[in-house]
């Protein structure tokens, strides 16, 4: 009797499983297929006789190790309704003369399943970060606008430092000498949807106004222009709807990555960024490469991972920060100021000891739990990583000082409210993470798992003796105040 497509898929999985010694992962995959297809006769373990050698959509990569070949193959099985769609990756070692992928073998099955069989070759591309992503928009329960009290604490904590910095370091004469100062431009890089960006802008504007007053230049007070920058997917509508009607500045949105130049050269007088310079521009390739020692299997971040993983993140961060400083150096006028509030970790800490590390670890463990329960494959978790890096203070300082376009005017640990004050309950802590990471998670795992994922996360946080303990919260913010050097220092000399 001819086999149905479903049976063919099963036979193929079983056949493959005999090659690799019928590993538990393959066994689980076969079992899942049976249960999804409501087939009652789940085969015995191991299968009595190998079924015919059929291959389904799969990708085999082979590389030599001594006289053996290591083969990594990935199989895809998918349902007609796309309800069940998963990949299964397996590495096996066998003599070089062993099994080979023959394209012809896939044809019978492709013919049976038709369009519903998605070739694995397409699916096996390394999963990279989307070009643009954003915090949760709107002002609903899970929005960033409603769940950014911790980040607001950083802006609040920086108010005095910004006022002092502007009073001491903003040189109005120097600024006026490089251009007629009838317009003072401020930009917030990584503004999100508010309300924190609106507070930051107000603080900077008032500090500059105060500086003009203190120098008895009130009559020359310029017009203020504020640029709000974020990724193109940021919910700029919510931000612009919440602009204060009585504001004393013109507002404009500037969409695009701040790791490139987004404003005209020498057009900016004050650059600001808060809670944003921990987001790296892309994931290091090696953490997604199963052949690399930096492959981040079973984790979604570098905390608790092999040192190669955190080194890869650190390298990407260094490249990104350099690109950020380079772009801002082009945009700022000589004498222009830049205040950065950067999430970091103390020098003596390893990031797994900071609360943010353990929070991300908890989230990763929830994803692994769901993978083990069959919601998606473990490979799906392996290919997901959060693009976040928290530099130790000394590393941050060295990176900043490497850029010669700026003078470092001030750098210190901020006194912002700790997490247990800014977010006292488990619910706050859960929504804080959800507002920031949901977009990226949805993009990778689908929106249907979000409620369950964060329910599990919330439970783990509540049960964790570590996460909610204030003594364990070692996350810090660094305030960095930089001044753009003039292009040609020799013209400044008397
Ligand atoms: C945690 S939010 C901080 C928002 C706001 N500054 C605050 O203090 O509440 C980080 C923001 O940085 C943005 N971001 C991250 N990488 C970016 C990039 N390369 N270019 C522009 N925005 C970026 C994110 O989209 C997000 O809106």
Automatic annotation (TrEMBL):
State if Cytoplasm is listed as a keyword: no
Q: InterPro entries, from UniProt?
A: MeTrfase_7, MeTrfase_capping, SAM-dependent_MTases_sf
One BP term from GO = methylation
Its keywords, alphabetically, are: Magnesium, Metal-binding, Methyltransferase, Transferase
Out of the domains of life, which is the source? Eukaryota
MF (Gene Ontology) = metal ion binding; methyltransferase activity
What does the sequence similarity comment in the record state about its family?
Answer: Belongs to the methyltransferase superfamily. Type-7 methyltransferase family.
The name of this protein is LAMT/FAMT protein
Q: Gene encoding it?
A: LAMT/FAMT
């Amino acid at each position: 009797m001819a086999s149905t497509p479903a049976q063919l898929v099963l036979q193929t999985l079983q056949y493959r499983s005999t090659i690799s010694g019928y590993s538990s992962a393959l066994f689980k995959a076969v079992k899942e297929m049976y249960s999804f297809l409501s087939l009652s006769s789940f085969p015995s373990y191991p299968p009595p006789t190998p079924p015919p050698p059929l291959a389904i959509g799969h990708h085999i990569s082979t590389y030599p190790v001594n006289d053996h070949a290591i083969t990594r193959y990935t199989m895809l099985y998918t349902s007609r309704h796309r309800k069940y769609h998963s990949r299964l990756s397996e590495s096996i070692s066998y003599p070089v003369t062993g099994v080979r992928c023959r394209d012809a073998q896939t044809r019978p099955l492709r013919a049976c399943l038709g369009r519903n069989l998605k070739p694995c070759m397409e699916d096996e591309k390394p999963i990279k970060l989307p070009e643009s992503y954003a915090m949760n928009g709107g002002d609903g329960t899970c929005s960033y606008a409603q769940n950014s009290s911790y980040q607001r604490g950083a802006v609040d904590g920086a108010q005095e430092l910004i006022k002092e910095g502007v009073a001491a370091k903003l040189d109005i004469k120097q600024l006026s000498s490089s251009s007629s100062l009838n317009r003072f431009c401020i930009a917030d890089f990584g503004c999100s949807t508010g309300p924190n960006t609106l507070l930051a802008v107000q603080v900077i504007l008032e500090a500059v106004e105060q500086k003009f007053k203190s120098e008895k230049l009130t009559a020359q007070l310029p017009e203020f222009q504020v640029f709000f920058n974020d990724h193109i997917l940021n919910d700029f509508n919510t931000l612009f709807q919440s602009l204060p009607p009585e504001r004393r500045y013109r507002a404009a949105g500037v969409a695009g990555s701040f790791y490139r130049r987004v404003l005209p050269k020498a057009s900016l007088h004050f650059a600001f960024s808060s809670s944003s310079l921990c987001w790296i521009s892309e994931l290091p390739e090696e953490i997604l490469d199963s052949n690399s020692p930096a492959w981040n299997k079973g984790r979604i971040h570098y905390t608790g991972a092999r040192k190669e993983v955190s080194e890869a993140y650190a390298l990407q961060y260094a490249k990104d920060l350099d690109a950020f400083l380079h772009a801002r150096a082009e945009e700022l006028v000589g004498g222009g100021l830049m205040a950065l509030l950067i999430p970091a970790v103390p020098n003596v800490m390893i990031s797994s000891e900071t609360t943010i590390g353990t929070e991300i670890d908890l989230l990763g463990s929830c994803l692994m739990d769901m993978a083990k329960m069959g919601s998606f494959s473990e490979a799906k978790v392996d290919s997901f990583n959060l693009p976040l890096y928290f530099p130790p203070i000394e590393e941050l300082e060295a990176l900043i000082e490497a850029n010669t376009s700026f003078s470092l005017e001030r750098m210190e640990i901020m006194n912002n409210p700790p997490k247990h004050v800014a977010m006292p309950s488990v619910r706050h802590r859960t929504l804080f993470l959800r507002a920031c990471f949901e977009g990226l998670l949805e993009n990778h795992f689908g929106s249907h798992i979000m409620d369950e994922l964060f329910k599990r996360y919330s439970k783990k946080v509540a049960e964790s003796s570590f996460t909610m303990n204030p003594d364990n919260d070692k996350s810090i913010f660094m305030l960095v105040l930089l001044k753009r050097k003039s292009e040609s220092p020799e013209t400044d000399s008397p």
